[in-house]
Specification:
Blueprint: H1 20-24, H2 29-46, H3 48-52, H4 57-71, H5 84-94, H6 99-111, E1 115-117, E2 130-132, H7 134-155, H8 159-165, H9 167-182, H10 185-188, H11 192-198, H12 203-211, E3 223-226, H13 231-238, H14 242-254, E4 258-262, E5 266-272, H15 273-307
Antiparallel strand pairs: 1-2, 3-5, 4-5
Helix pairs in contact: 2-7, 2-12, 4-9, 5-6, 7-8, 8-9, 9-15, 11-12, 11-14
Length: about 300
């Protein structure tokens, strides 16, 4: 960021945007993954209903899409921003949900007061305009800042402090990143090894729990043993049925991606190196895009400041 941009802090010292490959192979990336997993589990513990609404990959795509629409609202244009019909169209265009499923998702968000109706300012009475509420805005900002802190660990940058000091950075970067990620095949369509977790209800939270327990030397072994994992405890923690969680783990076990060192899912759980690397590969798309987006947002604000 240029020194002339005095209204916002400087960006990372080097000004470098990391490529996806650089992030994926960075020595600190496994610890970064642990950090973000713990951060997201923390959001779940503080607001479990809200966290469950992004705990499957399908809902993640829908939630980030609707936030991008909401932030992109032009108050001079009453037809812009988040509308029920626009989100349902995105759901079908991305092939992540039917219109009925998207409508049900919206109803859930409204019922729990994560979305609300806004006064009808549109000449088109068929449009139902919505907006995110304070509690969901705070959760999304926490999600974003958590990722900025993780990126800072890779190079000693100050993305998180910069964003906390200047809210406009988040408002620019979140829609920029969300739009790019929902159209990025590497992120939108995770590999089968992790996909059957991610497309399942709360499957993302289950993966966060596993990743949060990785040892420092996770990349040095073909099998990585995880301490303290119990399927029954996962059921209680994330409010999921034992049948559903057994189905997730059984499919991965049949594929040779994980297993237990004692019969009947007892003893220590191990994860295969390929399972871990597929997860890291998928996550690297998200981190790389967020890095591009926060740098883009900082440059955009600099340009706006020069013009004003």
């Amino acid at each position: 960021m240029d020194e002339t941009c005095r209204t916002i802090p400087r960006t990372v010292p080097s000004g470098k945007v990391h490529t996806r490959e650089e992030i994926l192979h960075h020595p600190a990336f496994p610890s970064v993954e642990r950090q973000i997993a713990l951060h997201l589990i923390g959001i779940h513990k503080r607001a479990p209903r809200l966290a469950r609404l992004v705990a499957s990959h399908r809902k993640w795509l829908l939630t980030h899409s609707l936030f991008a629409m909401n932030i992109g609202r032009d108050r001079s244009d009453p037809t812009s921003g988040l509308t029920a019909s626009r989100l349902m169209q995105v759901a079908t265009d991305l092939k992540v949900a039917s219109k009925n499923t998207a409508a049900s998702f919206l109803s859930e968000l409204l019922a729990y007061k994560f979305l609300r109706d806004v006064p009808d300012e549109s000449p088109d009475r068929r449009l139902r305009r919505l907006e995110t509420t304070e509690v969901s805005n705070e959760a999304m900002l926490s999600w974003f800042l958590g990722h900025m802190s993780c990126l800072d660990r890779l190079d000693g940058g100050n993305r998180a402090a910069m964003t906390a000091a200047e809210p406009r950075l988040f408002q620019l970067a979140q829609p920029h990143a969300a739009t790019a990620l929902i159209h990025e095949p590497g992120w939108r369509d995770p590999r089968d090894s992790i996909g059957h977790f991610l497309w399942s209800e709360v499957g993302g939270l289950i993966l966060h729990e596993l990743i949060s327990r990785l040892p420092d030397d996770a990349r040095e072994h073909e099998r990585i043993y995880i301490e303290g994992i119990s399927l029954s405890e996962l059921c209680t923690e994330f409010a999921i049925s034992l049948t559903n969680i057994k189905r997730m783990f059984k499919k991965a076990e049949v594929m040779g991606l994980l297993g237990w060192d004692e019969p009947r899912s007892r003893g220590k759980l191990w994860l295969s190196q390929s399972f871990i690397e597929d997860y890291f590969y998928w996550q690297s798309f998200k981190f790389a895009q967020l890095d591009r987006s926060i740098h883009w947002a900082a440059t955009r604000l600099c340009d706006d400041n020069r013009k004003s």
